[in-house]
Amino acid sequence: MNIATTVEQAKQTVRQWKAEGLTVGLVPTMGYLHEGHESLIKRAVAECDRVMVSVFLNPIQFAPNEDLATYPRDFAADTVLIENAGADLVFHPEPSELYAPDACTFVNVEEITSELCGKTRPTHFRGVCTVVSKLMNISQADRAYFGQKDAQQLAVVRRMVRDLNMNVEVVGCPIVREEDGLAKSSRNTYLSPAEREAALVLSRAVREGHHLMEEGERDAKTILGAMRAIIEAEPLARIDYVEMVSWDGIKPVDVADSSVLVAMAVYIGKTRLIDNFIFEM
Ligand SMILES: Nc1ncnc2c1ncn2[C@@H]1O[C@H](COP(=O)(O)OP(=O)(O)OP(=O)(O)O)[C@@H](O)[C@H]1O
Ligand SMILES: CC(C)(CO)[C@@H](O)C(=O)[O-]
Ligand code: BAL
Question: What domains are there in the chain, each with its CATH number?
């Protein structure tokens, strides 16, 4: 497996692959990889001739008050996981390699970024879409793999690719969970043992919301009320948002009459965790 730290090194490898007529899969990550990332990489390996995994903690998607400085890192362990999963290239640049001091081009997806995480993190998706565009250009990917755990991100990237006529298929992958239900996340490492226990309210609320919808409930207030009650019963939890939005447009809905995303962000102590389910109709 190759490790590229410069854009030119990565492009050179990709040029060779493309010259041989091979398809390329891209898996963008911020590192500190776990089984969620591994599932994306394995799917890419199964579906593409060659796979590039990027490990890049993208500074421009973090606001100054967020956790860029403390975000966990372990590049040595990441490379072992990536190699074992069967990928061919790791792209691991320094921020200065991707962002020139006078860089002034950013990708801003509107509307679909105005709710959910876009509300609390107003500059976040501009940073995500800018770096994802760059990674797609560098890798010349035929397919790019994203987890449903970051469901709004998946919808935003899909919309960007459609609106900008980019030549890449965006593949969404299911949420991988711990045995007790907690969605796997690099940020779970921030949790103390008591917080780890408290964090189960997210997946419990997701299960309850999904169960109600399976039983036929469609009223957002009823569904979200039941979910919020589970979270509010936990003293270590503080809700950022629990919302139901249309899955295609990420706009609030009162009654689910087509596919919806029911998503939440919840602080457990100081750690902000997300979880969701999509109810297809
Ligand atoms: N539990 C999971 N199941 C499926 N995909 C996941 C999971 N966790 C992360 N991913 C996906 O992996 C990709 C990289 O995510 P990222 O590096 O931010 O990992 P993370 O563990 O979600 O970190 P964070 O703590 O920042 O939420 C994204 O497409 C994300 O949706
Ligand atoms: C897609 C991504 C790697 C872009 O930095 C990041 O937002 C993430 O890890 O989900
Ligand atoms: N997985 C989302 C990246 C972030 O929280 O910045």
Answer: 2-173 (3.40.50.620), 186-275 (3.30.1300.10)
